[in-house]
Protein backbone atom coordinates (compact mmCIF):
# COMPACT_ATOMS: atom_id res chain seq x y z
CA UNK A 1 0.00 0.00 0.00
CA UNK A 2 2.86 2.33 0.84
CA UNK A 3 4.23 1.82 -2.66
CA UNK A 4 0.88 2.68 -4.17
CA UNK A 5 0.67 5.96 -2.24
CA UNK A 6 4.18 6.99 -3.38
CA UNK A 7 3.27 6.39 -7.01
CA UNK A 8 0.19 8.51 -6.58
CA UNK A 9 2.21 11.39 -5.14
CA UNK A 10 4.73 11.19 -8.01
CA UNK A 11 1.92 11.23 -10.56
CA UNK A 12 0.36 14.26 -8.88
CA UNK A 13 3.72 16.11 -8.85
CA UNK A 14 4.34 15.32 -12.51
CA UNK A 15 0.88 16.55 -13.43
CA UNK A 16 1.47 19.79 -11.52
CA UNK A 17 4.77 20.43 -13.31
CA UNK A 18 3.15 19.83 -16.68
CA UNK A 19 0.40 22.28 -15.84
CA UNK A 20 2.99 24.92 -14.85
CA UNK A 21 4.86 24.38 -18.11
CA UNK A 22 1.64 24.71 -20.10
CA UNK A 23 0.79 27.90 -18.22
CA UNK A 24 4.26 29.30 -18.92
CA UNK A 25 3.81 28.56 -22.61
CA UNK A 26 0.42 30.26 -22.65
CA UNK A 27 1.84 33.30 -20.86
CA UNK A 28 4.76 33.47 -23.31
CA UNK A 29 2.42 33.27 -26.29
CA UNK A 30 0.23 35.96 -24.78
CA UNK A 31 3.17 38.37 -24.24
CA UNK A 32 6.45 36.93 -25.60
CA UNK A 33 8.49 40.07 -24.83
CA UNK A 34 7.48 40.38 -21.19
CA UNK A 35 7.64 36.66 -20.47
CA UNK A 36 10.74 35.57 -22.36
CA UNK A 37 13.63 34.00 -20.49
CA UNK A 38 15.97 36.44 -18.67
CA UNK A 39 18.91 35.78 -21.01
CA UNK A 40 16.74 36.90 -23.96
CA UNK A 41 15.59 40.13 -22.37
CA UNK A 42 15.83 43.16 -24.72
CA UNK A 43 17.86 45.20 -22.23
CA UNK A 44 20.33 42.36 -21.84
CA UNK A 45 20.58 41.95 -25.61
CA UNK A 46 21.17 45.69 -25.97
CA UNK A 47 23.95 45.47 -23.39
CA UNK A 48 25.48 42.55 -25.23
CA UNK A 49 25.35 44.50 -28.49
CA UNK A 50 27.12 47.44 -26.86
CA UNK A 51 29.73 45.04 -25.51
CA UNK A 52 30.30 43.61 -29.00
CA UNK A 53 30.65 47.13 -30.43
CA UNK A 54 33.11 48.08 -27.68
CA UNK A 55 35.19 44.98 -28.35
CA UNK A 56 35.16 45.77 -32.07
CA UNK A 57 36.39 49.31 -31.39
CA UNK A 58 39.12 47.96 -29.12
CA UNK A 59 40.30 45.62 -31.89
CA UNK A 60 40.24 48.50 -34.38
CA UNK A 61 42.23 50.74 -32.04
CA UNK A 62 44.72 47.94 -31.47
CA UNK A 63 45.20 47.55 -35.24
CA UNK A 64 45.69 51.30 -35.59
CA UNK A 65 48.22 51.24 -32.75
CA UNK A 66 50.12 48.35 -34.33
CA UNK A 67 50.17 50.16 -37.69
CA UNK A 68 51.39 53.34 -35.99
CA UNK A 69 54.18 51.38 -34.29
CA UNK A 70 55.17 49.80 -37.60
CA UNK A 71 55.21 53.20 -39.30
CA UNK A 72 57.29 54.66 -36.48
CA UNK A 73 59.92 51.98 -37.12
CA UNK A 74 59.97 52.49 -40.91
CA UNK A 75 62.73 54.34 -42.70
CA UNK A 76 61.21 57.19 -44.71
CA UNK A 77 64.55 58.81 -45.48
CA UNK A 78 66.74 61.18 -43.53
CA UNK A 79 64.21 64.01 -43.81
CA UNK A 80 61.09 61.81 -44.10
CA UNK A 81 61.07 62.69 -47.79
CA UNK A 82 59.54 59.35 -48.80
CA UNK A 83 56.72 59.43 -46.23
CA UNK A 84 54.20 60.84 -48.80
CA UNK A 85 54.52 57.55 -50.73
CA UNK A 86 53.15 55.47 -47.83
CA UNK A 87 49.93 53.65 -48.73
CA UNK A 88 50.24 54.37 -52.47
CA UNK A 89 50.85 52.04 -55.43
CA UNK A 90 52.13 52.81 -58.92
CA UNK A 91 51.77 50.79 -62.12
CA UNK A 92 53.38 50.52 -65.53
CA UNK A 93 52.16 48.42 -68.45
CA UNK A 94 55.11 46.66 -70.09
CA UNK A 95 54.54 44.10 -72.84
CA UNK A 96 51.88 41.64 -71.64
CA UNK A 97 52.28 42.43 -67.94
CA UNK A 98 51.35 45.24 -65.59
CA UNK A 99 53.97 45.95 -62.97
CA UNK A 100 52.86 47.37 -59.64
CA UNK A 101 55.17 48.90 -57.05
CA UNK A 102 53.85 49.79 -53.59
CA UNK A 103 56.56 51.49 -51.51
CA UNK A 104 56.93 50.03 -48.00
CA UNK A 105 54.80 47.02 -48.99
CA UNK A 106 55.28 44.88 -52.12
CA UNK A 107 56.08 44.75 -55.83
CA UNK A 108 53.97 42.64 -58.20
CA UNK A 109 53.77 41.44 -61.77
CA UNK A 110 50.13 41.18 -62.87
CA UNK A 111 48.60 39.34 -65.79
CA UNK A 112 44.86 39.85 -65.78
CA UNK A 113 43.54 38.56 -62.46
CA UNK A 114 46.73 36.64 -61.72
CA UNK A 115 49.61 38.27 -59.88
CA UNK A 116 53.12 37.20 -58.93
CA UNK A 117 55.06 38.67 -56.03
CA UNK A 118 58.30 40.32 -57.10
CA UNK A 119 59.32 40.82 -53.50
CA UNK A 120 58.18 42.37 -50.24
CA UNK A 121 59.56 45.57 -48.78
CA UNK A 122 63.04 45.35 -47.27
CA UNK A 123 64.03 48.99 -47.00
CA UNK A 124 65.88 51.93 -48.53
CA UNK A 125 69.59 51.54 -49.22
CA UNK A 126 72.21 53.60 -50.98
CA UNK A 127 72.77 52.80 -54.64
CA UNK A 128 76.38 51.93 -53.83
CA UNK A 129 75.12 49.30 -51.35
CA UNK A 130 72.93 47.58 -53.93
CA UNK A 131 74.12 44.01 -54.46
CA UNK A 132 71.68 43.10 -57.22
CA UNK A 133 74.47 42.55 -59.75
CA UNK A 134 76.49 44.27 -62.43
CA UNK A 135 73.82 44.12 -65.13
CA UNK A 136 71.29 45.72 -62.83
CA UNK A 137 73.71 48.47 -61.85
CA UNK A 138 74.44 49.12 -65.52
CA UNK A 139 70.72 49.46 -66.11
CA UNK A 140 70.54 51.96 -63.26
CA UNK A 141 73.38 54.03 -64.66
CA UNK A 142 71.52 54.36 -67.96
CA UNK A 143 68.07 55.19 -66.66
CA UNK A 144 68.41 56.32 -63.08
CA UNK A 145 70.44 58.73 -61.02
CA UNK A 146 72.86 57.99 -58.16
CA UNK A 147 71.27 57.98 -54.70
CA UNK A 148 68.84 55.76 -52.85
CA UNK A 149 67.09 52.62 -54.07
CA UNK A 150 64.05 50.71 -52.83
CA UNK A 151 64.63 47.01 -52.17
CA UNK A 152 61.99 44.27 -52.45
CA UNK A 153 63.05 40.68 -51.72
CA UNK A 154 61.70 37.18 -50.94
CA UNK A 155 59.15 37.17 -53.76
CA UNK A 156 57.67 34.12 -55.50
CA UNK A 157 60.10 31.37 -56.50
CA UNK A 158 61.23 31.20 -60.11
CA UNK A 159 61.21 27.94 -62.04
CA UNK A 160 64.75 26.61 -61.56
CA UNK A 161 65.74 30.01 -60.21
CA UNK A 162 65.91 32.14 -57.07
CA UNK A 163 63.15 33.98 -55.27
CA UNK A 164 62.07 37.02 -57.23
CA UNK A 165 63.43 40.39 -56.12
CA UNK A 166 63.15 43.98 -57.30
CA UNK A 167 65.45 46.97 -57.06
CA UNK A 168 63.85 50.37 -57.65
CA UNK A 169 66.13 53.20 -58.71
CA UNK A 170 64.81 56.60 -57.68
CA UNK A 171 64.88 59.51 -60.08
CA UNK A 172 64.04 63.15 -59.49
CA UNK A 173 60.80 63.97 -61.30
CA UNK A 174 57.86 66.33 -61.10
CA UNK A 175 55.36 63.54 -60.36
CA UNK A 176 55.25 60.00 -58.96
CA UNK A 177 55.39 57.33 -61.67
CA UNK A 178 57.12 54.10 -62.65
CA UNK A 179 59.19 55.08 -65.68
CA UNK A 180 60.81 51.79 -66.73
CA UNK A 181 60.89 48.07 -65.87
CA UNK A 182 63.49 45.49 -66.83
CA UNK A 183 64.63 41.95 -65.97
CA UNK A 184 68.40 42.07 -66.51
CA UNK A 185 68.90 38.75 -64.70
CA UNK A 186 66.56 35.80 -64.27
CA UNK A 187 63.86 36.76 -61.77
CA UNK A 188 65.82 39.84 -60.66
CA UNK A 189 63.82 42.89 -61.69
CA UNK A 190 64.70 46.56 -61.83
CA UNK A 191 62.44 49.58 -61.98
CA UNK A 192 63.05 53.28 -62.35
CA UNK A 193 60.66 55.36 -60.28
CA UNK A 194 60.35 59.09 -60.79
CA UNK A 195 59.25 61.09 -57.78
CA UNK A 196 59.63 64.59 -56.32
CA UNK A 197 60.72 62.83 -53.12
CA UNK A 198 64.01 61.94 -54.83
CA UNK A 199 64.85 65.56 -55.63
CA UNK A 200 67.57 66.95 -53.38
CA UNK A 201 68.93 70.49 -53.17
CA UNK A 202 71.31 69.94 -56.10
CA UNK A 203 68.47 68.69 -58.30
CA UNK A 204 66.26 71.61 -57.31
CA UNK A 205 68.99 74.17 -57.96
CA UNK A 206 69.75 72.55 -61.32
CA UNK A 207 66.11 72.62 -62.37
CA UNK A 208 65.79 76.22 -61.25
CA UNK A 209 68.92 77.18 -63.22
CA UNK A 210 67.55 75.46 -66.34
CA UNK A 211 64.28 77.35 -65.98
CA UNK A 212 66.11 80.65 -65.58
CA UNK A 213 68.30 79.98 -68.62
CA UNK A 214 65.29 79.02 -70.72
CA UNK A 215 63.45 82.14 -69.59
CA UNK A 216 66.47 84.28 -70.47
CA UNK A 217 66.72 82.73 -73.93
CA UNK A 218 63.01 83.32 -74.53
CA UNK A 219 63.32 86.90 -73.32
CA UNK A 220 66.30 87.64 -75.58
CA UNK A 221 64.55 86.04 -78.52
CA UNK A 222 61.48 88.14 -77.85
CA UNK A 223 63.51 91.38 -77.74
CA UNK A 224 65.20 90.57 -81.05
CA UNK A 225 61.87 89.97 -82.69
CA UNK A 226 60.51 93.23 -81.35
CA UNK A 227 63.51 95.15 -82.72
CA UNK A 228 62.92 93.77 -86.21
CA UNK A 229 59.26 94.64 -86.12
CA UNK A 230 58.66 97.62 -88.42
CA UNK A 231 55.77 98.66 -86.20
CA UNK A 232 57.83 98.58 -82.99
CA UNK A 233 58.27 102.37 -83.00
CA UNK A 234 54.55 102.97 -83.19
UniProtKB/TrEMBL annotation:
GO terms under biological process: N-glycan processing
The organism's place on the tree of life at top rank: Eukaryota
Bias type Acidic residues, positions: 16-29
Composition bias, Basic and acidic residues: 42-51
Residue ranges of the region described as Disordered: 1-51
Cellular component GO terms held in the UniProt record: glucosidase II complex
Keywords assigned by UniProt, alphabetized: Disulfide bond, Signal
Residue ranges constituting the MRH domain according to the UniProt record: 87-201
Keyword Transit peptide: no
Pfam families (UniProt xref): PRKCSH_1
Listed name of the protein: MRH domain-containing protein
Organism: Octactis speculum
Lineage start: Eukaryota, Sar, Stramenopiles, Ochrophyta, Dictyochophyceae
